[in-house]
């Protein structure tokens, strides 16, 4: 089994979309430029969604325009529909990410449509994205627990993974959206999913609301998953758990993986600088630039 772990930095999108502090496009550009220097190869820059629903992402086109792109690094955009895809392509996104929910309650709340309708939108997006030679990654939210519908059946998630893969997503990111999954929940889910989907096509996206994310990464590693989403400085929070930490902190993940003998290709000192930059504005911490 490989030792290299692919890290997808989602802080500029999943992190900042949930932070109450408003940040400018030029600040986001600076943050992403810091992240690009660390050696990370995958950065989710922003999203093209309704600005009324997620005002924090309204300036994503400007952010794409301002960033200094590193050769070999993918700069992704999250899109909910064809309008989002067209905006992402216009902005020069290297790839796009689509998102569906495993539950009807969260699908309605997040996308204002049913799961079946969201799958139709994904099909439309992939048809055009393929034509534009733009790779598409897929997220499934609420893989074990939903704030509206409760516990989720692993077999249902497994069949949605198959649908997304068959439709043309190259990777499925399994989202513990509210950070409620335990390592046992993740193992039960992967027992179902890994019988249908090659592990090479799976990623873990664990929110750290209850400090379970690393245990869930460890459980996923045992199944052979080698791709994880994380957010610089743990940016994010969760609207359902005020004051709780948000996405899995990239520094925490990289430190853990390196200690466990995995390789990420990410320079921890440069990552700490990016973290300090984020914390200075978001957490109002004094900027202590590491040596
Ligand atoms: P809708 O209200 O059902 O209907 O939105 P609509 O399609 O008629 O659009 C309403 C308005 O939004 C219209 O503007 C559209 O033009 C505009 P108005 O006429 O009212 O002025 N609009 C757009 N504007 C910019 N870009 C677009 C776009 N589409 C429509 N692409 C819609 C449906 C899906 C658009 C809306 O519900 C929406 O934007 N939802 C996205 C919510 C979101 O971004 N959630 C967070 C990301 S998902 C996530 O965080 C989970 C994840 O991290 C994994 C995990 O943790 O589990 C990925
Ligand atoms: Mg998320």
How would you sum up this structure in a few lines?
Helices cover 41% and strands 16% of the residues. It is built from eleven helices and ten strands.
Can you tell me about this structure?
Helices cover 41% and strands 16% of the residues. With 291 residues, it is of the alpha/beta class. It has one domain: Alpha-Beta Barrel (TIM Barrel). The radius of gyration is 17 Å and the shape is globular. The two termini are 35 Å apart. The site of 3-hydroxy-3-methylglutaryl-coenzyme A has 25 residues, from helix 4, helix 5 and strand 5.
CATH architecture: Alpha-Beta Barrel
Helix content: 40-55%
The average pLDDT value, as a whole number, equals 94
What hetero molecules are in the model?
3-hydroxy-3-methylglutaryl-coenzyme A, magnesium ion
The top-level CATH class is Alpha Beta
Shape field: globular
Beta content comes to 15-25%
Give the tally of β-strands.
Answer: 10
Give the domain tally: 1
**Low-confidence spans: pLDDT under 50, at least 5 residues?**
287-291
């Amino acid at each position: 089994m490989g030792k290299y772990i692919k890290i997808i930095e989602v802080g500029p999108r999943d992190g900042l979309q949930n932070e109450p502090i408003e940040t400018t496009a030029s600040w986001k550009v600076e943050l992403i430029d810091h992240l690009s220097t660390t050696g990370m190869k995958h950065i989710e820059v922003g999203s093209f969604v309704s600005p009324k629903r997620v005002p924090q992402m309204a300036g994503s086109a400007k952010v794409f325009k301002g960033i200094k792109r590193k050769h070999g690094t993918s700069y992704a955009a999250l899109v909910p529909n064809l309008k989002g895809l067209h905006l992402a392509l216009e902005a020069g996104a290297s790839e796009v990410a689509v998102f569906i929910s495993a539950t009807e309650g969260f699908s309605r709340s997040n996308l204002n449509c049913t799961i079946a309708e969201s799958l139709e939108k994904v099909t439309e997006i992939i048809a055009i994205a393929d034509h534009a030679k733009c790779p598409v990654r897929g997220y499934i939210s609420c893989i074990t627990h939903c704030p509206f519908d409760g516990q989720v059946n692993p077999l249902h998630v497994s069949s949605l993974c198959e649908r997304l893969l068959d439709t043309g997503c190259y990777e499925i990111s399994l989202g513990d959206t509210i950070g409620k999954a335990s390592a046992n929940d993740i193992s039960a889910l992967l027992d179902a999913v890994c019988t249908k989907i090659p592990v090479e096509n799976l990623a873990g996206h664990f929110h750290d609301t209850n400090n379970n994310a690393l245990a869930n990464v460890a459980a996923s590693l045992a199944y052979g998953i080698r791709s994880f989403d994380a957010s610089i400085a743990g940016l994010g929070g969760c609207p359902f758990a005020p004051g709780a930490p948000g996405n899995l902190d990239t520094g925490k993940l990289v430190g853990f993986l390196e200690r466990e003998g995995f390789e990420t290709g990410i320079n921890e000192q440069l990552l700490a600088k990016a973290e300090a930059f984020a914390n200075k504005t978001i957490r109002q911490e004094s900027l202590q630039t590491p040596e």
